[in-house]
Description:
alpha/beta; 11% strand; binds magnesium ion
Amino acid sequence: PTGRNVYGFDPYRVPSAFAQLEGRARAEQLIQRHVGDGNPFPETVAMVLWGTDNMKSEGTPLAQALALMGAVPRFDAVGRLAGARLVPLAQLGRPRVDVVVTLSGIFRDLLPLQVKLLAEAALLAAGADEPEAMNFVRKHALATMREMGVDLETAALRVFSNADGAYGSNVNLLVETGQWQEQDELADQFVKRKCFAYGVKKAPVAMPDLMKRALATASLSFQNIDSVELGATDIDQYVESLGGMNRVIAAAKGDDSTPVYLGDHTGAAGKIRTLDEQVSLESRTRLLNPKWYEAQLAVGYEGARNIAGHVVTTFGWSATGAKGAVPEWVYAEIGNVFVLDAEMRERLAKANPNAASAIANRLLEANDRGYWQPDEQTLAALREAAADLEDRLEGVVAA
Ligand code: BEZ
Ligand code: MG
């Protein structure tokens, strides 16, 4: 309203000096957590970048991607973003990590200069005359050139997103509707939507095989959590992006054991959590926390819908994460709290019968798909409750 505050940020100054400092710290913190968990130094980090959290933080997550590669932005004489520059290996003090990024459509639309910046950093790293053991971007690009018969510029493509004008992988929609059999179908869906490679000059080109090949080198996958209000189980887009990408990694490697990490930088000191740690934390503090679900129920129809939404998204991490991404106790407690407790079942069904039924059916789906094995008695009680809730939906019994 003052007429002075007419833009949110200047895209020519992203990532800012602050974002570069913070991005560097996050990059080292991620490497340390991974190595601290007993894994070798990561050759490739597969990273999801969103537009909104980069806008809010002056480009911190994208600066983290650059820092992993050992690159920094280059600014011209008047301080406008002009491209990427490599930090010399001697100064970096560790190998350049290969970074395969999948961008949301929003990032692609809002930060075109930074899309190019990431692509240029990867191309510079791939072309650097450095030993392969100290530069994993180059190591992987040279192998791709040999094995796929492509030039360096193609082999160095590391930035993938949707086709122009398209958004999202839709993996979340597959999960929600249950219209899938094998987990590899989720991977195929992600590749189909997100395989458009963004390079330094050409228009994006669909490169599904190159994307799968790049992701097959992933040592881990990672996404920053953006805010205290929206975690990995609050909205389904983390499943859609990080979960979907993890499915591609698992399918391409033929191995489901690649770690998935989330960076919680909502407090002063950042924290890296594994996917199962994050799901456990959010289950305890949100979905299974009486303070949280009572507040939802107080809202009525929409609150009950939101509870059911959290159940689906939690389940989505079983579908897209590795086995055990959602610990079995989470499913058991969801069943105890929302379905097997007759009074709570009644409250939910009164507030929103579709949501009550959806929760019971999703738990049965989790069992059908092998994510959770309750004992026979519990399973029978769940089935009975689900049938009862369905009868109510169909008006078979008087409510
Ligand atoms: C984004 O800002 O890129 C984004 C926000 C919400 C969901 C997915 C992507
Ligand atoms: Mg403004």
